[in-house]
Amino acid sequence: MNSIFSDRISDVPRSFIREILKVAVDESIISFAGGLPNRDLFPVRELQAAANKVLEESGKDALQYSSTEGDPALRKWIAERYRAKQGLDIDPNSILITTGSQQGLDLLGKTIVNEGDGVIVEEPGYLGAIQAFSLYKPVFHPVPVGEDGLDLNGLHSVLAKHAPKLFYCVPNFQNPAGISYSKENREAVAQALKGRKTVLVEDDPYGELRFLGQQKPSFRQFMPDTSVLLGSFSKIIAPSLRIGWIVANDAVMDKLVIAKQAADLHTNYLGQRIVLQYLKDNDLDKHIALIRKAYGSQREAMVAGIREHFPVETRYTLPEGGMFLWITLPEGLSALTVFERAIRQKVAFVPGDPFYVNRKNVNTLRLNFSSVDEETIRTGIGRLGEVLKDMIRKG
Ligand SMILES: Cc1ncc(COP(=O)(O)O)c(C=O)c1O
Q1: DSSP 242-298
Q2: Is 180 in the pocket of ligand 1 (CB under 6 A)?
Q3: In angstroms, rounded to a whole number, what is the distance separating the alpha carbons of residues 44 and 42?
Q4: Structural domain spans, the chain
Q5: Contacts of 246 (CB under 8 A, 6+ apart)
Q6: Average pLDDT, the chain
Q7: Of the residues 1, 55, 133, 162, which has the fewest C-beta atoms closer than 10 A?
């Protein structure tokens, strides 16, 4: 009998992380596996006050249907922030409010990708993007990333053979590897794509969470006509709000608005109004400074623990911001096998496998440092170090 399900959905694997984390629900397990912001830093009281104010002062408006593009005042606020923080000149009309930046990925897949079209993804890359684009049945072209950004030889060799429709990247504090593209690397990537029709999708949920080093220019500065920029309040206010945005030029915006309308009419308008009220009544920079300080210390604790406890053969990235650090184990040591052992020692992480489109049993893994306190980080990294040393010793 034929399946009742579409090929589109049948071919997309379940979220590997969700499956694997079922094993890690035990409260005694220290988990570096999640991708969650630190809940202790959520502005609960401030959002409560903002919600009360919106409902008291303009409840009837805030509860009504609204425009597909999103609240004009919120779009204006976002445009002004781009100008103030990055010197980017963005018209509020070029901003579409989305239900998290995750929806932005789906809408871009829907509007740009036909079955069989090429999509460049980073290797390793954000698995939520791999999953979102997979529904549109593209051919993925993975290009490796390293400490300095994208592997330019890898990019050139894909471009020599293919004409990809999309290039998806997370140039600031990448999920999963924590790396960032240098300014020179961004320029070289933009140069390689010059004159091509490939749309560069710059996903930037972590850019404001820098605790070290200098801010780097957005791809929008180098290729304003052929890039799309995604942003989100998830990591700087709270993810449950599900409010993100896409910055795109008129032609792409036109199509995105149609796709958005068909998907959900508009993003939760009450939520948009609450966020805007919060932004009016509070100092977001001050709030972000708290997050940066906390994540910076948590990252320090993790790096110190790795240096003390991990076998010398282990390599690790040194993120300047964001929430993740990436480990490369000695060749031949499967992170999935390490995971099974680590769970028994009550510590969890995400094995690298789901972050690759065509590699299995890899020797890499992702550690999250934002949702675990420093003391617990020290304990958990110590446990993981023992597991690794033991496995290497026993070959
Ligand atoms: C690179 C990247 N893009 C997008 C998202 C989704 O974010 P949002 O909550 O805005 O949908 C995440 C979430 O972890 C992410 O890491």
Answers
A1: --EEEE--HHHHHHHHHHHHHHHSSS-HHHHHHHHHHHHHS-HHHHHHHHHHHHHHH
A2: no
A3: 6
A4: 7-42+286-394, 44-281
A5: 95, 96, 98, 101, 104, 107, 108, 228, 229, 230, 253, 256
A6: 95
A7: 1
d(CA 205, CA 245): 10
Pairwise CA distance, residues 19 & 157, whole Å? 35
State the amino acid at position 164 in one-letter form.
P
- pLDDT, residue 27, reads 83
Strand partners, 142: 121
Walk along the chain (395 residues) in steps of 10 and give the mean pLDDT of each run.
82 70 78 93 98 98 98 98 98 98 98 98 97 96 97 98 98 98 98 96 98 97 96 98 98 98 98 98 98 98 98 96 98 94 95 93 96 96 97 85
Q: pLDDT digit string (tens) for 358-377?
A: 998 999 999 999 999 999 99
Contact 167, 193 (CB under 8 A): yes
CATH topology for 44-281 is Aspartate Aminotransferase; domain 2 (3.40.640)
Full strand arrangement of the beta sheet holding 227-232: 95-98, 244-247, 227-232, 199-203, 166-169, 118-123, 139-146, 149-150
Instruction: Pick the closest to residue 227 from 217, 236, 241, 242 (CA basis).
Output: 217
Which residue's CA is the nearest one to ligand 1's atom 16? 175
Residue 287 in contact with residue 362, Cβ under 8 Å?
no
∠ CA 235-240-244, nearest 5°, is: 60
User: Which of 96, 168, 175, 209, when mutated, tests ligand 1's pocket best, judged by the most ligand atoms within 8 Å of its CB?
Assistant: 175
Of 17, 38, 101, 108, best ligand 1 pocket probe by most atoms within 8 Å of the beta carbon: 101
Q: What pLDDT was estimated at residue 395?
A: 73
pLDDT digits (tens, 9 = 90+) for 167-185: 999 999 999 999 999 999 9
pLDDT score, position 16: 67
Distance between CA 51 and CA 293 in Å, rounded? Answer: 27
- For residues 44-70, one letter each, b for 16 or more C-beta atoms within 10 angstroms of the residue's C-beta and e for the rest, the string is eeebebbbebbbeeeeeebeeebebbb
- The contacts of residue 80 (CB under 8 Å, 6+ apart) are none
Its CATH class, for the domain covering 7-42+286-394, is alpha beta
pTM above 0.70, yes or no: yes
